[in-house]
Amino acid sequence: MAIRPAEQLIHKAAWLYYAHGLRQDQVASQLNISRASVAMYLRKARETGIVNISTSTQLFTDDVLARKLEDALSLDAVWIAPENDHIADPSTEIAVLAASVFLELVKKGDRIGVAWGRTVYMIADVMSYADLQDVTVVQLCGNLGAPYSYRPDQCTMEIARRLNAKGLNFYAPLVLSTEELARALRAEPVIREQLSGVSECDLALYSVGAVDADSHLVKCGALTPNEMADLRSQGAAGVIAGQIIDAEGKVLGCGYNRRVISAELASLRAIARRLVVVQEDSKFEPLLAAIAGGLCTHLVVGAHMAQRLLDHAAATTEKAS
Amino acid sequence: MAIRPAEQLIHKAAWLYYAHGLRQDQVASQLNISRASVAMYLRKARETGIVNISTSTQLFTDDVLARKLEDALSLDAVWIAPENDHIADPSTEIAVLAASVFLELVKKGDRIGVAWGRTVYMIADVMSYADLQDVTVVQLCGNLGAPYSYRPDQCTMEIARRLNAKGLNFYAPLVLSTEELARALRAEPVIREQLSGVSECDLALYSVGAVDADSHLVKCGALTPNEMADLRSQGAAGVIAGQIIDAEGKVLGCGYNRRVISAELASLRAIARRLVVVQEDSKFEPLLAAIAGGLCTHLVVGAHMAQRLLDHAAATTEKAS
DNA sequence: TGCCCAGTTTGACTTTTGTCGAGAGCCGTG
DNA sequence: CACGGCTCTCGACAAAAGTCAAACTGGGCA
Q: Is the pLDDT of residue A136 over 90?
């Protein structure tokens, strides 16, 4: 009878089922199809964002700890993923929470900047689908040349796909071999335009990277372990959108940074809502740096990290007084 | 063991089930409660807006007819409820659609003006629950003195309850017996403030009333059938937020209108999004008046009414050319 | 034309979910 | 302190939803 199940039918089935509260067999008889087909359509409707099921993340901000952190670090909002007892995998828990928080922060018509990394990719991976056609997702930094699992463009596109949004990729390498070339490329109209468009974003999503041999920058060959160690001794404290920052959250004045094509930190700071998600406890120092540099307004972390941040803030205040 | 099931538990159950995709029995064993309890918590979570299930209403704007209407009447968006074949009750269908559309239009932080009537109340009644604490719902017009089924304050409060929002009621009668008293009451600071706050709304929801003996204004005793007929012969074309408007959508200069306490039409027009919902085919003329008066930017109607509006618009254009 | 393929549909089966009445803890009251 | 009234909880059953292999469909291709 029909070969294209026609988006139309999926819509109708979803409407009758979710908005009218009919049972699947009732929907089936209304539409003259079998109940099994209805079940399939409904799955598709959920997968494409025609229906949207979201759960409030309030539970995780209601926490006293979260409130204290907001105060201590002057952040707009903090979500804390529990890490106690029998939670299977705390880092997944953080990603799931972050995905929900992200969806809650997105508004229609938004322009969203997305960086890259394992964390961002995990978030994209567990994010549920939504239908936000007038949203644009832009890539905050250049691409990794080598084939690599969590490429910036993959992160951007996957999130855009989940949201049914438009994805704006950025076709330049993240790191070039000379400063001259990087400068020249940044001056290219296409690149220039994309970089200057970053500050017009309404929302940004990124994590922070650690300055060690496990960093993606080392794994993908942008830096050698030795260079990384060097940078560390020069004061490198973390990595944000491919750039090395110092403990105060400022761009570290180093050759590497001058070879990078990425959104300037000032542009990032111009974005009203900056959601930072950190999964690994080992990224304490980088996170502190990002917060110090005002690169974070909304934060999602695990309970353990939250406690460390709070202890640190308390110690700092005490010392100051 | 426990007497308060604690919102906390509902949250956790909802989180594990909807965000993590666990089965109810897995949630039950995580939380050490029976599966039956989990099922109950989940129902509560849906009922209180902790989880939100919404379906896209795009299907109803995608219609060619809807597009044509948007153009012909210069409206921002039109949704058309199908009325063909075996739909049980077209007016319920319109209310369900309107409720979804309304929820789709609400944004966090919004201030929403709500009028009254059977239609508005039906919408409130089928509206699903949401969790929008920073939303305020304000009543657009005074109350009916007599005990009556669809009172303005009921409409306002019910919608506020569904959204978990703050409801702002308006404790003045809709109609007073003398113009002097109405004028004096409007000058009262409390009332004055509420009325002037109307134009600060981001979204308004109302229907239109017909000028006949079936009008709520007659049923509740604010006007006699004879007075109504009189007004009709004076050019009354419809009722909006308790006020009589003429065919051009302007306030009719009549004694009755001067005795009414309600938001001025100019304030309504100052609201960016004005959602008008009409269920009855008999309200063709009042709806035309409302549209003519610029009181409508977003419209939800049945297919039949949509066709009539389009035919009328085409006829008018033809005559003009 | 006839065959194959990719995607859709279906009936039958299994798993998951909703619901109901009974039981149990809590509290104010007589 | 015994008593309903109240709400929460649980086990068991009934209802609904998910799944899978097999049948079917229409279109492209040799």
A: yes
Using pLDDT thresholds of 50, 70 and 90, give the confidence band for residue A1: very low
CB contacts < 8 A, A to B, total 71
- Give the H/E segment covering residue B68: helix B64-73
pLDDT of residue B307: 92
Q: Pairing state of beta strands B243-246 and B236-240?
A: antiparallel
pLDDT tens digits, A187-215: 888 888 889 899 999 999 999 999 988 88
Task: Give the Cα separation of B276 and B43 in Å (integer).
Answer: 31
List chain A residues with CB under 8 Å of B64: none
Which of strand D's nucleotides are less than 7 A from any protein C-beta?
A: 7-12, 16-20, 25-27
Cα–Cα distance between A144 and A176 in angstroms, integer? 10
Q: Which of residues 156-185 of A touch strand D (CB under 7 A)?
A: none
Nearest to B96 by CA among B121, B126, B61: B126
| Bridge partners for A273 per DSSP | A203
Whether nucleic acid strand D comes within 7 Å of the CB of B1, the answer is yes
Is the Cβ pair A53, B14 closer than 8 Å? no
CB count within 10 Å of CB B171 equals 11
Strand partners, B273: B203
Residue A19 is nearest to which of B12, B50, B55, comparing CB atoms? B55
Half-sphere exposure of A123 (CA within 13 A, CB side): 32
Cβ-Cβ contacts under 8 Å for B226 (sequence gap 6 or more)? none
d(CA A4, CA B276) in angstroms, rounded, equals 35
Q: Is the pLDDT reported for residue B1 higher than 80?
A: no
Specify the DSSP class assigned to residue B260: B
Length of chain A: 321
Q: Is the pLDDT of residue B172 over 90?
A: no
- Asked if B58 contacts B279 with a C-beta cutoff of 8 angstroms, the reply is no
The strand ranges marked E within B15-129 are 51-55, 77-81, 111-114
Specify which residue's alpha carbon is closest to the C1' of nucleotide C8. A3
User: Residue A282 gets which letter from DSSP?
Assistant: G
